[in-house]
Specification:
Elements: E1 13-21, E2 24-31, E3 47-60, E4 63-75, E5 85-87, H1 102-126, H2 133-143, E6 155-164, E7 168-175, E8 180-185, H3 190-198, E9 205-208, H4 212-221, E10 226-229, H5 231-251, H6 267-289, H7 294-301, H8 305-313, H9 334-342, H10 348-357, H11 364-375, H12 381-384, H13 411-418, H14 427-439, H15 441-459, H16 465-474, H17 478-489, H18 491-499, H19 505-520, H20 527-534
Parallel strand pairs: 2-4, 6-9, 9-10
Antiparallel strand pairs: 1-2, 3-4, 4-5, 6-7, 7-8
Helix pairs in contact: 1-2, 3-4, 5-13, 5-15, 5-17, 14-15, 15-16, 16-17
The structure holds zinc ion.
Zinc ion (ZN) is lined by residues 37, 39-40, 42, 76, 78, 81, 83.
């Protein structure tokens, strides 16, 4: 028979007949295939018989099609070869043992990658290329994986994703240049990330979040790479610092803060906290005297119900209930420390070392403060206030009240508003910002610094970081100073975040895609399949 227009299986394959049988097209074709023995490589010209394979192929006019392919079986003339006969191969059309042509196999995998097993099964049946969902997923697992180490990546972003409702975390590595997933790791650990990075010595830049885990993995696994502290996480950290400060203000209205550089800086928050607490106590009393219910007072002040009841029962502010010291506190080890002290073992570093062996997880500075009272009993805390060298400047801080509802503005809302540029505020939000600025001087300071920080991140001018950090330190707002301190410890990576154009924004997008996929895959979301579907699809004929 002659060549049929529109029907082709490849060179050296002759189509013998095409007929409709049981609602399927059956295409009979002959091919000799390769003649070299797959075992010894000898070429053969002696045909032994025909070998018939039935292969699913592209449909014709919306009707499923089967190729009945007759392949030559050859004799191997090599006496030393274990093979007596072998079947010729047609690598362009089909791989050995496959049940569909390679071109159809690729379509099945593409469907599986894009739509998963269930949806693919439905669509493929409708398109007359039927394949069960198990087949789709099996095909995808078998031939849908890219060899990770084979693809060079220069610029990556690393982030974590939640694997099972907050229990376990995995890592996602995004190729920031190609805007695609470079790999998915089932765990979040220094070791696994380090391993992966070591397989990619070509990496030049790594953008990562601000928890130390990935930073350490990069230092160990890709010491050649420049690290970037992700901008999104930087802004998140700042938002949390602002929220902490605003929570303090709302819990202790009238709370004050000190100018910087004061040697009383450390003691001041405690002192201020005591004063603020007393102020709140009297405020609560006044509200109650005015006939306000406990529930309403709770709502207005944010003080817990139990505390309120205790306060309303007593005439003076009851002493704070001190929680039992934990492993984080040197007081937990008081007995041991007293023994050591008495024995003359008084070096802080040495004592820290000993405490660590006993399970202490607090800081060195905490221990130093604890020991300072023993070292300088004359400078007891009570007399400290009088010996301050700098005058204490107290600034009124009040709870901000929403002018429309008359309710207190929560720290969360205040922090979010603090970071929103004026041009993006709605008129309602603008009202709240004004109320916040008027009631809380620290909010006004933080907003100014927050706007500067946002501008700094966009400016590409890394030299502006140092002045900003100094301004934050000078702000005298403890949580902002703390934030500046964490930035300083990660200084190079933060500088890079300003100077370099890369960020983890894409990784966030990919994590959203991952969550959607995970949900859509129901119980079948094994890490292997999830990983394949997250990574870019690659056509792999064999
Ligand atoms: Zn052979």
């Amino acid at each position: 028979m002659g060549k049929r227009p529109g029907l082709a299986l490849g060179p050296d394959i002759s189509i013998e007949s095409v007929e409709l049988s049981q609602e399927r097209w059956v295409i009979r074709a002959d091919a000799r295939g390769t003649r070299s023995c797959p075992s010894c490589g000898w070429s053969s010209s002696s045909r032994h018989s025909w070998h018939v394979r039935r292969l699913q192929d592209f449909p014709i006019q919306g009707t499923a099609a089967i190729v009945e392919l007759r392949l030559a079986r050859w004799r191997c003339r090599n006496d030393t070869c274990a093979n007596r006969t072998f079947v010729g191969r047609l690598p362009a059309l089909v791989v050995p043992f496959a049940r569909r042509t390679s071109r159809l196999g690729e379509i099945v995998r593409l469907f599986g990658h894009a739509a998963g097993g269930r949806v693919s099964e439905r669509l493929l049946r409708r398109l007359a290329m039927p394949a069960s969902r198990d087949t789709v997923l099996r095909e995808l697992k078998k031939r849908g994986v890219r060899n990770v180490a084979s693809v060079p990546v220069r610029i990556v972003g690393i982030d974590d994703w939640c694997w099972q409702k907050g229990d376990t975390y995995g890592s996602i590595i995004v190729d920031l240049e190609r805007r695609s997933v470079a790999d998915i790791l089932p765990v979040r650990s220094v070791a696994s990330t380090q391993d992966w990075l070591e397989q990619h010595p070509e990496i030049e830049v790594v953008s990562r979040d601000r928890c130390g885990l990935y930073a350490q993995a990069v230092r160990q696994g890709a010491p050649q790479a420049r690290q970037i502290a992700d901008r999104f996480h930087l802004v998140q950290n700042l938002r949390m610092a602002i929220e902490r400060q605003m929570a303090r203000v709302s819990r202790f209205p009238g709370r004050s803060f000190l100018p910087p550089g004061s040697d009383a800086e450390r003691e001041a928050p405690r002192q201020a906290s005591r004063e603020a607490r007393l102020g709140l106590f009297h405020y609560v009393k006044a509200l109650h005297a005015g006939g306000m219910s406990v529930a309403r007072i709770k709502e207005k002040t944010g003080v817990g119900r139990q505390t309120l009841i205790r306060w309303l029962d007593s005439d003076d502010l009851p002493a704070r209930r001190h929680p039992k010291p934990t492993l984080r506190s040197p007081a937990y080890f008081r007995e041991f420390l007293e023994q050591q002290w008495a024995a003359g073992n008084r070096r802080g570093r040495q004592l820290l070392h000993d405490l660590r062996h006993r399970g202490y997880i607090g800081s060195h500075s905490h221990l130093a403060r604890f020991l300072a009272e023993w070292r300088h009993p004359d400078r007891a805390t009570g007399t400290k206030t009088e010996t301050r060298s700098m005058p204490t400047v107290f600034v009124e801080e009040n709870m901000a009240i929403d002018p429309v509802t008359g309710w207190q503005i929560s720290p969360q809302v205040a922090a979010a508003l603090c970071l929103t540029p004026t041009g993006m505020l709605t008129p309602r939000q603008q009202q709240k910002v004004t109320a916040l600025k008027q009631s809380s001087p620290s909010f006004a300071v933080m907003r100014r610094l927050a706007m500067l920080f946002r501008g700094l991140l966009r400016s590409k001018k890394a030299e502006k970081l140092e002045p900003w950090l100094r301004a934050a330190k000078d702000s005298a707002i403890p949580s902002l100073q703390q934030f500046a301190g964490t930035l300083r410890r990660d200084f190079t990576a933060v500088r890079n975040a300003i100077a370099l154009p890369w960020s983890n924004g894409q990784a966030e997008g990919q994590i959203n895609r991952l969550k959607t996929l995970k949900r859509a895959m129901y119980g079948r979301a094994g890490i292997e399949l999830l990983r394949i579907r997250m990574m870019p699809f690659e056509a792999q004929p064999n």
